[in-house]
Amino acid sequence: MTGPRFEFKRSLSSPRLWRRIRQGVQIASLALFVYLLFEAYQGHVAHPWTDLYFRFNPLAALAAMLASRSWIGRLGLALGTVALTLVVGRVWCGWICPTGTLLEWIRFPRSRGASRPWRGRGASRPWRGRGASRLGRDRAVGTALPASLRLRAVKYVLLAVILAAALFGNLTAMILDPISMLTRTMTTAVLPPLDHAITSVERALYPIAFFRPAVNLVERLFRGPVLPLQQVYYAANVAIALLFAGAVALNAIADRFWCRYLCPLGALLALLSKVALFRRVVGAECNRCAMCAGTCPMDTIEPERGYESDPGECTVCLDCLTECPRQGIGFRWRWEPVWREYDPSRREMLAALAASAAGVALIRTSARAGDPDPYLIRPPGALDESFDEGEFLSKCIRCGACIKVCPTAGLQPSGLTEVGLSGLWTPHLVPRLGQCDFGCHACGQICPSGAIRPLPLDVKQLIVIGRAYIDVDRCLPWVDNIPCAVCEEMCPVPDKAILLRADSEGLEDEGSSAPRPYVRSARCIGCGLCETRCPLNGESAIRVYSPNEPPPPMGYV
């Protein structure tokens, strides 16, 4: 059964112009994303809209608000994306999303027709007309949907898992959010290697007098605003890169495979688009040439339904409009809810809810959840006065924005060894790589979900994020009587949290002459600059511990 045919003038005149407009919007959106990425790179937050794409992300907003049981005003702009989708469909996916744009542009050579996996252009689909019951269409007689259609349900399952886990206060699955995924990848796996490559070329060219002015020009223009002042290193960058590379590699199977079958944000917008007002329609001029079906990047045009398309899968890319030789396709205002066999059923949603509950319980009873890393240090403003991580983990969407903006690269994505799955890729400070800069509060300014509170600088400088302890078995003045005052000199606290004493406090070597450092715990805020600057190779002689950890055993001061 096919839907009604329409005699109509084309709702969009000059379709090629509209496709050019869409491509222009895609380029502008991707350029804006990259611009905002650099505007908040390495401690520089030029304006409060550097997290713009997260503010308009309805998946991030819904998941964070469900997990934290609170309204997050900064994410309220996501309602604009919801309203836009209810009116004109999934234009976010086809026009705005930077991840979707990259996946659309990255294509792999395939044989003819391979962009429609597991289903030929003329293959039939085992379902009946629109009037049949959703659960009874052909499933009653044991026919199964083709693999390409069954896979569409995967993104709805992932969406259900994310939202169900959020109900239990866990946002680990938000690592699959496309905006977070692209931001993390650019921050940890693209920009640092790019800087390393550029720096290597500069070092090779600088000794040559002819190239020296060009190298100096590049340094003046890009060092700082674009390239970091020093080489940065990130933990988990390989895993983060592999996740995004996997999404790209799936394009070898089908164009925009991630967008079609896996993207949880796309699934949320697809559900809203089912009832959108502006949608694709097929006119009486259609001669069933199938050119539109062959060009659809989402493979959502259905020959068995008169070349109609599922509005939940259509991204309003307008490619079919351009390819139609008889002007038989148009877009017009038409409200008619549409459901398909691969849409989520009640049973599937209940199964996802149960699986999420079991998964969250399993994560929270893991060994690492019960015994957190004693060196786990969260950014200032992430924890409340009781140092409870619950609220922080229920708001952190794993976007990596704070990691991107940290000027010292001390903020790192947490791995399984530090926090387990419950805090995977949440930010924590690794002082040996970089301290929490005493004059910086950028992480709180850029955090889109409020997981890190935006603190004034004078308040942030008083926040305790850890406690430093000196290992007397490694510290040079303590072990070898070698004068060293680096930690005391570097301490940024105005009244100094580290002091030098000439006495030996009753130790055996009372004849020691080198002043020894001591930590005044009541003054220490745990910024980690002392650990960063400790001149010892390998592990520092002074370590910053989590503030809720008991003091280390004997041998530390």
How would you describe the overall organization of this protein?
With about 550 residues, the chain is mostly helical. It folds into 3 domains: about 1-125 and about 145-360, no CATH class; about 365-460, Alpha-Beta Plaits; about 465-545, Alpha-Beta Plaits (2-Layer Sandwich). The protein has 25 helices and 10 strands. The strands form 5 sheets. It has a two-stranded antiparallel sheet with strand order 1-4. A two-stranded antiparallel sheet has the order 2-3. It has a two-stranded antiparallel sheet with strand order 5-6. Strand 2 and strand 3 form a beta hairpin. Helix 1 (about 15-40) crosses helix 6 (about 100-105). The longest helix is centred in the middle third of the chain and has 28 residues, at about 180-205. The model is unreliable at about 1-10, about 110-115 and about 115-145 (pLDDT under 50).
Structure in a nutshell:
The protein is mainly α.
**Cα end-to-end separation:** 80 Å
Q: What is the tally of helical segments?
A: 25
Low-confidence stretches: 1-11, 111-115, 117-144
Strand arrangement, major sheet: 1-4
Q: What is the number of E strands?
A: 10
Gyration radius, in Å: 28 Å
Strand content: 5-15%
Whole-number count of domains: 3
As a percent range, the share of helical residues equals 40-55%
The main sheet comes to: 2 strands, antiparallel
> Pairing-aware structural class of the strands and helices?
mainly alpha
- Residue-averaged pLDDT: 84
Morphology: elongated
